[in-house]
Specification:
The protein is an all-alpha fold. It has helices at residues 4-26, 31-39, 45-58, 60-70, 76-99, 106-124, 128-131, 138-160, 167-197, 201-204, 206-233.
């Protein structure tokens, strides 16, 4: 007789495979979006709002990290605290990176973002006291990784900008779009997590879920490092 775990594991595996395929597809900026922005210089508040929201909603690396962050957060107050730290971090480096034209290799940044997913899975499994002898400050880690996530967003936005005309308005609009997309995606994740937590399968599959999350982070990191190595040898 098949148990719930026997049924859940294949479903989670398929979901992980589909998610990673979408990550690869969503890694860059859609050509249609890029062409529109580059052919319409100046202030474009609504398009940048849309692009910011779209990138966050389809940015599976960001969503996987957020999923890990809220995995054991049951109170909305705690969720708001951690998500605010993440938002402050990624907003700071997004705005500064684009405005001051600070460039970084996108493959390296995205590899670190993949490692942030691995970190959060290990943290949820309580692995750090055994691996390194102490528990890292969870809030500080979310903020620091938020800085890297923001730099990742900056590398995408830098690909879009053809002119610095209207830069501040467009940059602020993109960031507001990112926050809107984050709120929308997080709301859905919280609803699904709340429903899952009410079932016996949640406590039974904590290790399985975070093991899959860690695998996703490892694959994401490897994907980006492979891209970096390919770029270096081209």
């Amino acid at each position: 007789m098949r148990t719930r775990r026997d049924v859940l594991l294949p479903i989670l595996g398929v979901a992980l495979a589909v998610g990673l395929h979408e990550v690869a597809a969503a890694h860059g900026v859609a050509e249609g979006d890029k062409a529109f922005i580059q052919n319409n210089p100046g202030v474009n508040v609504v398009p940048y709002l849309y692009l910011g929201a779209k990138h966050m909603v389809t940015g599976y690396d960001h969503l996987l990290f957020l999923f890990g962050v809220i995995f054991f957060l049951y109170r909305l107050k705690d969720v708001a605290s951690y998500v605010t730290l993440f938002a402050v971090g990624h907003s700071a480096t997004l705005l500064a990176g684009v405005y001051f034209n600070i460039h970084a290799n996108p493959f390296v940044i995205d590899a670190i973002i993949g490692l942030s997913v691995v970190y959060k899975a290990l943290d949820n499994l309580g692995a750090f006291p055994k691996l390194i002898g102490f528990q890292p400050n969870q809030k500080a880690a979310v903020f620091v990784f938020g800085l890297f996530h923001g730099f990742g967003l900056a590398t995408k936005l830098q690909d879009l900008i053809a002119s610095r005309d209207g830069l501040i308005a467009n940059l602020v609009s993109f960031n507001l779009g990112v926050e809107t997309g984050q709120f929308m995606a997080l709301s859905v994740i919280l609803i699904l997590m709340t429903l899952w937590r009410r079932t016996p399968s949640f406590t039974k599959n904590v290790v399985v879920a975070n093991a899959l999350l860690m695998c996703a982070g490892i694959v994401l990191t490897g994907y980006q490092l492979a891209g970096y190595m390919t770029e270096q040898t081209a």
